[in-house]
Amino acid sequence: MAEAHQAVAFQFTITPEGIDLQLSYQALNQIYLSGVRSWKKRVSRMRNRVIKGVYPASPSSWLFVAIGILATMYMQSDPSMGLIAKIQHLHVSLSTQGQTMVSALVFSTLLWLSLILALRFCLKLLLSYHQWMFEQHGRVSNTTKVWTLLRLLSGRKPLLYSYQTSLPHLPVPAVRDTLTRYLESVRPLLTDLEYKRMTDLANEFESSLGNRLQRYLKLKALWATNYVSDWWEEYIYLRGRGPIMVNSNYYGMDFLYVTPTSVQAARAGNTITALLLYRRMVNREELTPSRVPGTVIPLCAAQCERMFNTTRTPGVETGNRIQASLNMLPGIPPVVKSLYLFIYFCCYFVLSPPRVPWAQIRKEHFSSGVNKRSLDIIEKAAFFVTLDDEAQGMKGDDPTGNLDRYAKSLLHGKCYDRWFDKSFSIVIYKNGKSGLNAEHSWADAPTVAHLWEYTLATDAFQLGYTEDGHCKGEVERSLPPPHRLSWEIPSEVQDQIFSSLTVAKALADDVDCHVFPFRDFGKGKIKKLRVSPDAFIQISLQLAYFRDRGSFCLTYEASMTRLFREGRTETVRSCSNQSCAFVKALEGGECKRLFRQASEKHQNLYRMAMTGAGIDRHLFCLYVVSKYLGVDSPFLKEVLSEPWCLSTSQTPVQQMELFDLKNHPDFVSLGGGFGPVADDGYGVSYIIVGEDMINFHVSSKHSCGETDSHRFGAQIAKALQDIMAVLSADTPSSSKGPAQPQSKKLL
């Protein structure tokens, strides 16, 4: 066995002259280096715990406090108001001068800790204030002005998790508030009779079961860090029994116009190196915490903890995950080019079966022996890499069609050449194009997007390539070679593989993907009209859907709740009374006033979702409590079964400082996308790139005769143009309206 050979550090034989030791110095050196790395990590973690524990102060601030106390005592003043004297009585074995010194240091330490607790309390109060998001430009309240003191507590550079204990907990909205907002959200989708029926159901729920469920939910909120996240992960993701390919996983693309190198192995080497550099920053907590763009407001970093070395493992009823240290690539190689030795590795297995058969096969055939050893290597690895034998990207005579095929390849591949259970898988194509496929249960798109932005920028601008497209540097010859993983696949497992492959291929073939860059204008022109770019796009999607289907639908827009500890997402119900009124008015004639109202309404819905006043997560948790109590609610059952025929999300651009678009305008991101949520609906992802471009990813199912991704993409482009024409028709008058505060869009 290969691992047995690598484990031998020395050999010995017994000879007539005595014992002859045959030491393997290379192996012993690797053991020594491994121990050094291990102790460095321990010291670094201890140091980080101290720094986080005293944040927003610094460990060195203790010295200033101690010097200050000693200086005042030297000046015959007692800053402790007698406490130092009382502490002196506890030291009977020291001299008088020694007792005074020790007592002053003890008092300084207690005072320092008290100041830290006070600062942390103030920081938590400041982070709990969210009214700043609702302020209008030029009309800032005095409370918000005082709140800007938060900047004074954010001056010192924090570690990745420095803010975690200071973030507020997600509040539980009042049942009445949630029901009122829910009824308002479905009003444009229901007839008068249907709306009256739903109102009666809501009122009956509030007067009977609602308050009882709410008490349990508030109890959980007092006890748990976040009253939503664990149930959301368990019931929305891990308890899904179908394939996670297409249905759950999402993808991210490479640069739109350029490919840094056409050499597949070189692109893989740089990409892996960049990812390991990012992993090292996460492990050392050197990564700067994400913030609301344009502010000092930190976002929860909890999702970073499970970014690497994480795998979603199946169960018969639910899925669990494991997290372990990387055992194939223990560190970053001395030179990038050495990774050539590692990347020619392939594992052939159907990777997206339904969860129940996969769980049963795993338990029976992959829980021991060679299969378990090989599976452990993959599941404990930092991430998965696929060297694809196809070429992808916007290329050739059919760039539009090739972009669509590129999206489908990243979304599902050949159904057996991606490891969909890994936290994320990197795909390197034959022509050097790259991309990723991410599993959704452990984190949301912004966390993965932040990683991918860093990877693309580091690959292209920091590591770089030689003139002939190869990695820079020299090969480190002492690195161990790669080893092929062994598998034992009996006939019953082969039968299940082919059965699962049939299911997966049918699912993949049904996906209709369309990717298109919209270049007519971008956020620069939209902002000149004093309109939120996200609201502009969302209202355009409402117009496009109405023209495509002749009606409105329940619309899902993902919003983050990472202003709160362990926050994930909330739903913005983008189809509102105001947006529907505008669409109807536009179809019958132009009406700017209704657009302004619809835009302002959308912004307010988004702010409420970000600040814990959303609808859907609260209703979801009430439903979970009802199931635990064994009680049935017709209202909750109907609400939770409503289909999202239009599911939308914005891919965030969080690190524009990494990309010099002025000198390198071709290095623009394509963003990423996901599969349709409803069988008869659309999935739409978009990324706002720079000032003049918006990239869209549209998905639907071929099996639905009423949807067509290319047709809907054309409707989106026309809707954007038509709304811009309406708002630009009389620019002076359109700019006289009240300025709308810009929400911080992250998803």
TrEMBL record:
Subcellular location: Membrane
GO BP term (any one): carnitine metabolic process
One Gene Ontology cellular component: membrane
Family (UniProt): Belongs to the carnitine/choline acetyltransferase family.
Pfam families linked: Carn_acyltransf, CPT_N
Lineage: Eukaryota, Metazoa, Chordata, Craniata, Vertebrata
UniProt entry keywords in alphabetical sequence: Acyltransferase, Fatty acid metabolism, Lipid metabolism, Membrane, Transferase, Transmembrane, Transmembrane helix
Principal localisation: membrane
Protein's name in the database: Carnitine palmitoyltransferase 1A2b
Boundaries of every Choline/carnitine acyltransferase domain copy: 170-319, 354-717
Organism of provenance: Oryzias sinensis
TM annotation in the entry: 54-75, 101-123, 331-351
Active site: H440 (proton acceptor)
InterPro entries on file: Carn_acyl_trans, CAT-like_dom_sf, Cho/carn_acyl_trans, Cho/carn_acyl_trans_2, CPT_N
Example GO molecular function: carnitine O-palmitoyltransferase activity
Record's bilayer topology term: Multi-pass membrane protein
Ranges of residues in domain Carnitine O-palmitoyltransferase N-terminal: 1-47
